[in-house]
Amino acid sequence: MAWSLLLRGGTVVDGTGAPGRAADVAVEGGRIVAVAPALSGAAERVLDVTGRVVAPGFIDMHSHSDLFYFACPSAESKIRQGVTTEVVGMCSFSPAPVRADQQALVKGWVGGIGQTPDLPWETFGQYLDRLRELRPAVNVIHLVGHGALRIAAMGFEARPAGADDLRRMERGLGDAMDAGAWGFSTGLVYPPSAYAHTDELIALAKSMRGRHGYYFSHIRGESAMLLESITEAIRIGDAGGVPVQIAHVKASGPENWSKLDGALGMIDDARRRGVDVAGDVYPYNAGSTKMDNLMPAWAHEGGVMKLLERLADRAMRKRITDECLADGERWGTVSQGRIGFDQIFIAACRRRELEGLNLAQLASQSGKAPAEALLDLLLDEKCTVGMVSFSQSLDNVAKVMAHPALMIGSDSIPLFEGEGDRPGKPHPRTYGTFPRVLGEYARERRLFSLETAVHKMTGMPAARLGLGDRGVVRVGAVADLAVFDAATVKDESTYPDPHRYPTGIPYVVVNGQLAVDGGRLTGPGAGRVLTPAR
Ligand SMILES: [Zn+2]
C-alpha cells in the first residue's frame, strides 16, 4: 500500500524539544505512519524537503479568529504561518451563546472591526455546527466566553452576579462544555466580564471540576494592578481546581515594566505549590484591541449603544477625561497603563484615511486636544475602531518568551471583510507571530534554540491541552505539519505594511492534507473543530 504523502530529506524537529534529526516522514490516513531516515516505500505524493525542517504544525494558544472563519475560511493569514490549530473564544469573547432577544446587544459587543457579523444561532452547539460546516483550513479549539455567558444570564449590567444569575451562567457553561467547549475565558478588563467579582469566577471554575475544563484569563489589570491580577488568576484556578492559562503575559505602561519579574516569580511560586498555571505571549511590544477599551469599565454599562450616549454627553465626557487623562499628557487605563497619545495607533475604522495615524497626529490634524480627538473618533465611528498601542518593553517580551512555563499565542485579531479583502492596519502578529519566533528570536537573537522555539509552539501547548496525538512528529500522531527553512524563515508583516505573508514556509499539512503546497493554498480546508476527551 502506498502512503499518501512522503516528506523526504528533511530535519525533523519533533516538538518535544529534542534535538533535530535527519528523517523522512510518511503520512497515511491522516496520521504519521513512519519517521526514519531513508524511507523507501511508495507514496502518492513525495515532497523533497532537503535542507528544511519538518515540525509539528503550530498551535496558536491564543487567537481571536472566531468570526474570521466565517468571512475567510481559508484562514490564510494563519495557515501560511504554519499554524494548524488555533485556540479561540478568548478574553471573555465568544460568538455564542446568544439569546434570541439579545442579538443586537451581542453583535455590538462581540463584533469585530470592519464587519457586521450575523449570529444565526443561539446555543454554543448550534454555533459549533455552523463552524464545522465552513470547513476552516485550521483545527479549532473553542472556549466559551465569560462575557457571552454573563450577557445571556444577566444582560450587560455592572453589578455582581446574584445566586440566580450564577446558576444560569453555570448552566450556560455546562451546555457549552457538553457541545465541545474546552472551558471558559475571562477578559477582566472588558465589560461585562470586568463586572464580575472573584467569587463568581471561582464558582464557575468549580462547576467545571471533573470535566477537564480550562480557565483562560486576560487578567484584571496588566499595568498598576499586575501583581494583584496575577494573584487573582492563580487563586481562581487553585480554588476552582482547574488549570489556569494567563493570556499574553506582560506589564503595560513604562511605569509598570519593573513589575514583570515579580509577576513571573508569582507564576513560578504557584507552580511550585502545585497550582496548574501557565501562560502565553506574543513576540511584539505593542498590543491591539478595540479602542473603546480605552474608556473606563463603568462607561460601558448597558453595551455599546449606552457607551455612545455617554460619549455624546458633555458631563460624561468630562468625567471620563478627568479619570483617564492622568498627567495631562498620557492616557491611563487599567489595561494599558499610562501611554502617550503618540503610542496609540488607529488600526481600523470606517474612514480608511485615518488608519495608521496615531492619536497625537489625529489631534493635530483636527485641531483638537488629543483626549477630545479620541472621544470624538469613538463617537463618529460608533466605537468600531481597532487600535495598536505600544505599552510594553522589548526586554520584557524576550524575558516572558524565554520563561519555561510560557508558550506562544498570537492574540491576533484579524481584520477582514471576505476572502481576498485586506482592510485596515492590523497588528503584524496576525501575519507574523510564528515565523517571528523562529526567525527573529531563535535564529537572529538566539533567545533560545530552534528546538525550544518549536516546542513552545507545538508540544508545549499540545501537552497543556491534553492533545496526546498532536503537537509532535512521531508515529501514530495526527499529521499536522509545518515545513520551513530555518535559515530564511521570516515574518514580513510590519506595522505600516501589515498584510504580508511570511517567507520560508513552503508546506503546511493539516490532518494529513496539504493545506499549503509549494507556497500556494490548496482547496477546501481540512481543519476540524476539536472537542476535548472527557
Ligand atoms: Zn486579551
Biggest sheet character: 7 strands, mixed
* Secondary structure category: alpha/beta
User: Could you tell me the mean pLDDT?
Assistant: 95
Strand content range: 15-25%
Low-confidence stretches: none
Identify the overall geometry.
globular
Summarize this entry quickly.
The chain is α/β, with parallel strands linked by helices.
Would you spell out the secondary-structure blueprint of this structure?
Blueprint: E1 3-8, E2 11-12, E3 21-22, E4 24-28, E5 31-36, E6 43-48, E7 53-56, E8 58-60, H1 68-71, H2 76-79, E9 83-88, H3 103-110, H4 124-134, E10 139-142, E11 144-145, H5 146-154, H6 163-179, E12 183-187, H7 198-207, E13 214-218, H8 226-240, E14 244-246, H9 260-272, E15 277-281, E16 286-290, H10 304-311, H11 314-324, E17 330-333, E18 337-340, E19 344-348, H12 359-366, H13 370-380, E20 386-390, H14 394-402, E21 406-408, H15 429-444, H16 450-457, H17 459-464, E22 481-484, E23 507-510, E24 513-517, E25 520-521, E26 529-530
Parallel strand pairs: 1-6, 2-7, 8-9, 9-10, 10-26, 11-12, 12-13, 13-14, 14-15, 15-21
Antiparallel strand pairs: 1-4, 2-3, 4-5, 7-22, 16-20, 17-18, 19-20, 22-23, 23-24, 24-25
The chain binds zinc ion.
